[in-house]
Task: inverse folding
């Protein structure tokens, strides 16, 4: 998800990202969705860039605007220091992260392991939570957990290049 897109630009950015996903082969229109005339941003099928083959169920991908709080859900933990990987204790991290979702400034954490200081969104958020919009949701039905994480990281990196700004990955596993 994007961390720096102003609220007034989030819908337009979601549209632009959706178009970019199709143009760059990350997604292909889902014929069933087209036939049913779903509203904008219904999921597309994963495309060849995402490694989707000829499976009957290649998985889906969609970009949209949510309430802004993106959670790892099961086994959620504090973010990890970008310098040394030390996890911020959840009891310290979550109040600030949830306040951020309610409109407070983005929290800054000091690593207990190395003393590095970083904004929450600049930390490793894969197993934690963060706040931003728009977000891209990938449901890779035929991949292993490791492949799904690698896929999400690759997309995050490409979105950073294509759209600039701060893009992060939260691996939502239930």
Result:
């Amino acid at each position: 998800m994007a961390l720096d897109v102003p609220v007034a630009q989030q819908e337009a950015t979601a549209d632009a990202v959706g178009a970019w996903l199709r143009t760059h082969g990350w997604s292909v229109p889902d014929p069933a969705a087209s036939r049913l005339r779903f509203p904008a941003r219904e999921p597309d099928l994963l495309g060849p860039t995402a490694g989707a083959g000829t499976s009957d169920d290649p998985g889906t991908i969609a970009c949209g605007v949510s309430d802004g709080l993106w959670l790892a859900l099961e086994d959620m933990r504090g973010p990890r220091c970008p310098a040394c990987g030390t996890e911020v204790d959840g009891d310290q991290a979550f109040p600030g992260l949830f306040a951020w979702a309610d409109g407070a400034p983005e929290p800054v954490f000091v690593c207990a392991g190395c003393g590095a200081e970083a904004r929450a969104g600049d930390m490793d958020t894969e197993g934690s939570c963060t706040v931003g919009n728009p977000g891209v949701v990938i449901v890779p039905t035929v991949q292993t957990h490791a492949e799904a994480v690698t896929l999400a990281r690759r997309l995050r990196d490409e979105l950073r290049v294509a759209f600039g700004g701060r893009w992060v990955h939260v691996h939502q596993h239930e």
